[in-house]
Amino acid sequence: MNLKSLKKPRPGDFCLLCGAAPAVIGVFVPENPQEYGAIKGKTRFIRYCLCTQCHSKQGALEKVEKVIQHEFLGRATSC
Ligand SMILES: [Zn+2]
Q1: Within a 10 A sphere around the Cβ of 75, how many other Cβ atoms?
Q2: How far is CA 29 from the centre of its chain?
Q3: What is the tens place of the pLDDT at every residue in 28-40?
Q4: What is the whole-number distance in angstroms between the Cα of residue 20 and the centre of ligand 1?
Q5: In this model, does residue 75 exceed pLDDT 70?
Q6: What is the distance between the alpha carbons of residues 17 and 49, in angstroms, rounded to a whole number?
Q7: Cα–Cα distance between 20 and 29 in angstroms, integer?
Q8: Residue 35 C-alpha to ligand 1 middle, in angstroms?
């Protein structure tokens, strides 16, 4: 898996923030990859999609980060 293949559109993609058809594919690289399930010393890439509308909104990236964090941390605490 490399960055190029991460940025390719896939069937079933949807905007992370509103669920609409995606226009932009981004890759979030957390500062603390271990919090996101990475093995110590490894980087973690988290792929996400946004629609044009959400992508052009101010603070979109912070929102994306929060949603991703919530998904990962929520999953971690629920098991
Ligand atoms: Zn959207």
Answers
A1: 10
A2: 8
A3: 998 889 888 889 9
A4: 5
A5: no
A6: 9
A7: 23
A8: 26
Report how far ligand 1's centroid is from the alpha carbon of 39 (Å). 31
Distances 13 to 34, 37, 42, 57 between C-alpha atoms, Å: 25, 22, 26, 20
Tokens of 1: 């898996």
Residue 3: strand pairing partners: none
Which of the four pLDDT bands, split at 50, 70 and 90, describes residue 77?
Answer: low
Cβ < 5 A residues, ion ligand 1: 15, 17-18, 20, 51, 54
Tell me which of 2-6, 13-17, 29-33 is least confident: 2-6
- Dig out the tokens for 14 from the structure: 């949807």
